[in-house]
Design goal:
Helices cover 52% and strands 13% of the residues. It is of the alpha/beta class. Helix 5 links the parallel strand 5 and strand 6. Helix 8 packs across helix 10, helix 8 crosses helix 11 and helix 11 packs antiparallel against helix 12.
């Protein structure tokens, strides 16, 4: 069987290291494109063939992988593919969008004789660099079997969640749980602090009990305890995008999502106060009363 030619569009914080790992491990050619000059330059020392023209990256590609900011960008790129892509092209979207967007895109590509899979990724940029992402896939059995080896070049945990859209559903649920847990932990840290408990002591004690969690050990210890919320990490602006997708899904399912709505209100206030670009556990500063109100 001929080795498939891969195209990769979107070389940002997550896409760049994903493309680098794919190019290093895939036996065939990997072409890469991004609108940003610096993002393209960062891949020049990789095995990927980096191009400055989107037509060049698509030329002859059998599979196109996307890592883009959201549904708007994904749908815009995919809308051009019936004219610019190879017949039978398979599109694998690694971005976080919405269930409805994934299904719209799949239907549009299907009408053009092309296939689609939604395969959003979870974990950190460091995990992307190491090739240790968790990837949640919505696709037919046939498509999943075809792309599973490629996804394994970028992630250690690849889960077939079901048909088109289920990858996005699982990713949105995963993210909402993290955002909600961070907000809940921020409330408890603020309360404990006001009650005279040192935050480090609080996290140590809770980590030894049933309140321990991934969020406590990672977001709590690494960001909230030292109060380090850099701009070049997952920002509160992105949190609101994902929560909107989660609430859309909840509405379509007819299930109330009141805890998610409360978390949305917290992060919306973070953005309103001008801190939307900062790493989202900065919600602690809001809840603890340490964030200035511009009004």
């Amino acid at each position: 069987m001929a080795v498939e030619r891969i195209a990769f569009i979107g070389l940002g914080v997550m896409g760049g290291p994903m493309c680098r790992n794919l190019a290093a491990k895939h036996a065939g050619e990997v072409r890469a494109f991004d609108l940003n000059d610096a993002a393209r330059a960062a891949l020049q020392d990789s095995r990927a063939r980096v191009t400055a023209e989107i037509a060049a990256v698509l030329d002859g590609a059998d599979i196109l992988l996307l890592s883009l900011p959201g549904a708007k960008q994904v749908e815009a790129v995919c809308a051009t593919l019936p004219q610019t892509g190879k017949p039978g092209l398979l599109v694998v979207d690694l971005s976080t969008t919405t269930v409805a967007s994934a299904r719209r895109t799949a239907a549009m590509l299907d009408a053009a004789g092309m296939a689609f899979a939604d395969a959003p990724v979870a974990r950190t940029r460091e995990a992307a660099v190491r090739g240790e992402l968790s990837i949640m896939v919505g696709a037919s059995d046939e498509v999943f079997a075809r792309i599973r080896p490629l996804l394994g070049h970028m992630g250690t945990d690849v889960t077939h969640c079901g048909g088109i859209g289920t990858g996005q559903a699982v990713k949105l649920i995963n993210n909402a749980l993290v955002f909600e847990h961070v907000a809940a932990l921020a409330e408890m840290m603020a309360i404990g602090d006001r009650a005279g408990v040192d935050p480090a002591v609080l996290l140590d004690a809770v980590s030894r009990g049933s309140g321990d969690s991934f969020v406590l050990r990672n977001h709590g210890r690494k960001a909230m305890l030292p109060r380090e919320f850099p701009d070049r990490a997952f920002p509160s602006d992105y949190v609101l995008k994902d929560i909107a997708g989660m609430l859309e899904l909840a509405g379509d399912a007819g299930v109330p999502a009141r805890i998610t709505e409360t978390a949305r209100d917290y992060y919306a206030e973070v953005v309103r106060r001008g801190c939307g670009s900062r790493y989202f556990p900065v919600v602690l500063e809001l809840i603890a009363g340490r964030m200035d109100d511009p009004t």
